[in-house]
Design a protein that fits this description.
This is CREG-like beta-barrel domain-containing protein. Keywords: Membrane, Transmembrane, Transmembrane helix. InterPro entries: CREG_beta-barrel, Haem_oxidase_HugZ-like_sf, Split_barrel_FMN-bd. By secondary structure, the chain is an alpha+beta fold. The protein has three domains: about 25-75; about 80-260, Pnp Oxidase, Chain A, CATH 2.30.110; about 270-350, Alpha-Beta Barrel (Split barrel-like), CATH 3.20.180. The protein has ten helices and eleven strands. It has helices at about 1-75, 90-100, 105-115, 160-170, 200-215, 220, 250-255, 260-265, 270-285, 330-345; strands spanning about 120-125, 140-145, 155, 170-180, 190-200, 225-240, 245-250, 295-300, 305-310, 315-320, 350. The strands form two sheets. Strands 1-2-3-6-5-4 form a six-stranded antiparallel barrel. A four-stranded antiparallel β-sheet has the order 8-9-10-11, covered by helices on one side. The longest helix has about 80 residues, at about 1-75. The radius of gyration is 35 Å and the shape is elongated. Mean pLDDT is about 80; it is low at about 1-10, about 75-100 and about 220-225.
């Protein structure tokens, strides 16, 4: 019994050593598998990075191709590109040159005229927290407006509209105004940066009168659950007038200028009457260079008119200047100036 017991006890250390060896082997295997897992993760990350790099290279290539195509289109249109590395005064000189060459009002006045003639615009506000996952994104909506005597737009908003809620949370916005009869990127447009606030109760009636004067609407069409807002502060104005005119407009100059009388009085009604009289004679005048299917006046100022010309499915804008030194202020003066140009066959007055 003693002998057997000794044999039994002498075998125990061997089993312990075997267990320890097995444990060490398992630990080594676990470390090896973990190392392999890390190695595979690094490989996957490398592959993803390579894919992203490849995608970015493709996007860069597409961007360069698009830019090259735009350059070709610009050259085909005969438009001289602005070098934005130039000093600002050189850019301003080019704008003044284009304005003078085409008989256009200076940019600040052109914007005032555009604000008077346009009735609708695109308002871009910042989405509020009320919309959760959309918070912070720009929100665009189509609105009508009326400018006051300083050119600040007045709006009529429903409290239920998303843009109204956005403005109450954050008044910062931009207003994009396009020339009536918009048909393409050659048309005039302006982006106005500013802060819009609700008008106090004692100014609501005043704003309503401004609105009725612009839109010829009765009280039943805009009065009720609508409240008037105003862009109280204008911080910047960016104008693209076509015919090579691109400019940041001085806000103070814009506010101090008065729009052309012909652009304010009558507005849409004047254009409707002028088109009824001059659309066919203008089409005939323009057809001396190339066949024209339709010609419509879309804008007028003291120096001339903008004409939307259709040739088949293609549209473009042409500028017809009045006689130099004769500013047009009334509808009758505009009619006389247009008949004078048409009778003389003054095709050279046309600028694309």
């Amino acid at each position: 019994m003693v002998f057997v017991s000794r044999l039994h006890h002498t075998g125990s250390p061997m089993k312990v050593r075997t267990s320890r060896s097995l444990g060490l082997s398992m630990l080594g295997l676990a470390l090896f598998l973990k190392t392999v897992s890390l190695y595979l993760r690094v490989i996957r990350m490398t592959i993803k990075a390579a894919r992203r790099m490849s995608i970015n290279q493709q996007r860069l290539k597409q961007s360069l191709e698009t830019q090259s195509q735009l350059h070709m289109q610009v050259e085909a249109l005969g438009v001289q590109e602005l070098d934005f590395s130039e000093p600002q005064y050189l850019v301003e000189c080019r704008v003044q040159s284009a304005t003078s060459a085409h008989g256009l009002p200076r940019p600040a006045l052109a914007v005032r005229n555009l604000m008077e003639q346009a009735r609708f615009a695109h308002l871009c506000t910042v989405m509020s927290r009320m919309h959760h996952r959309r918070e912070g994104y720009p929100f665009g909506s189509l609105v009508d407006f009326a400018p006051d005597t300083m050119g600040h737009p007045i709006f009529s908003f429903s409290p239920l509209a998303i843009h109204t809620r956005n403005l109450l949370a954050d008044p910062r916005c931009t207003l994009v105004v396009q020339i009536p009869g918009w048909s393409g990127l050659s048309n005039a447009r302006v982006t106005i940066f500013g802060d819009v606030y609700p008008l106090p109760e004692h100014q609501q009636e005043w704003a309503h009168k401004q609105y009725v004067a612009k839109h010829q609407q009765g009280t039943s069409q805009q009065w009720g659950n609508f409240y008037y807002f105003r862009m109280q502060n204008i911080s910047d104005i960016y104008f693209i007038g076509g015919f090579g005119t691109v400019a940041w407009v001085d806000v103070k100059e814009y506010e101090e200028l008065k729009p052309d009388k012909i652009a304010v009085d009558g507005g849409e009604l004047n254009l409707k009457e002028l088109n009824a009289t001059f659309s066919k004679p203008l089409r005939k005048l323009l057809s001396t260079e190339a066949e024209v299917d339709d010609a419509a006046l879309i804008s007028i100022d003291s120096k001339g008119i903008d004409i939307r010309v259709r040739q088949g499915a293609q549209f473009n804008i042409q500028r017809l200047s009045f006689e130099e030194g004769k500013a047009v202020e009334t509808l009758e003066e505009a009619k006389a100036a247009l008949w004078n140009v048409i009778k003389k066959g003054r095709v050279q007055n046309l600028k694309k």
